[in-house]
Design goal:
Largest sheet: none
Oligomer: single chain
Shape: globular
Strand content: under 5%
Number of helices: 16
Amino acid sequence: MKKLDGKGLALDAAALGILFLLTCLPGPSAKGVLDGLKSCVFQVIPALFPFFVVTGLILESPLAEWLGLALYPVTRLGLGIRQRRAATVLLLCWLGGFAVAASVISQAYRQGALERRQAMLLLVCGVGSSPAFVVNTVGLLMLGSAPLGVCLLGAMLVANMCTALAFRLMLALRLEKASPAPSGTNAPAAGEAAGLVGSIQNAVHSMLIVCGFVVFFRFLCEAAAQALSLDAAGFYVLCAGLEVTSGCAAGAALPGYAALACCAALSVQSLSVFLQVRALLCPELPLWPLAAARPLHLALSLCFFRLFLHWLPGAADVISTLAPRVICRTRTAPDAALVLFAFCCLVLFRLERSARRMQQGVKQQSHRV
């Protein structure tokens, strides 16, 4: 008799549950899908797609050696990584959020710029929500206070650094002369385009993955909440476990605990985030360090957030003055415009370099003639 597979049974039960939701709750299911599509159109794609392209260009350019010098003390002293390129990778992770973090860490690992243990440390230290989402969407739009969003962002980043340091010390992750990524060079793999074309191709692929998870988990949150008839606290726990944006929105509606609930949702990151990171991360890098670090990250982020609130008088008053219903907008035009501007600057820089090379080639040919 064939032995029962627990993982297979769990997947079968989940599939039957999702089929039940689609069949019995078509209205909430359709609403969740539409909400996910709107989120992709107005928030996810404008903020992430240009950033995916920009990060791909940066890691292939000389900017990767010095752009993140401000974070070099963090990577050198805290994480024990000597390469200057690792500081740029960490900077891009913090600016772009968890999806960009998984993409740039994988790209740097495949290029041979990072060893496996270094990539694992950067994964723990770099994965989180982007500053635009934390400050603008959660702080300003959901909680009604930009300083509160700054406190949340500071707590997340400091907790990231402390968690990565503890992860390094607990597991005795020493830098050693281990074999780097299989490629070992900065050249692209066979059949893979480089430069702007390759960056756009990779960005499109990554964007489809992210949007697919966003739409699916928005549907799952909406349909499951309707089926279970949860109260406000139960709805927050469900959303925070499934999808981080919905979790923050549900937490912002909790009277008296709104800011702390948003902080916890941002720290846990949700199942959707973990699956997105797994899908964007190269298969050689494991996901368990990120999952194992979340309980410690949750405790540290809540402690640092309460500490930062004491340093910003008046920010904590927002916690007790929120409206019972929070209406969230999803447009993030300022950060998208900033990323588009940086993207245009990088494209112009590469075009200028190509033009100079062509001029030098023409001059060399004229001299030979």
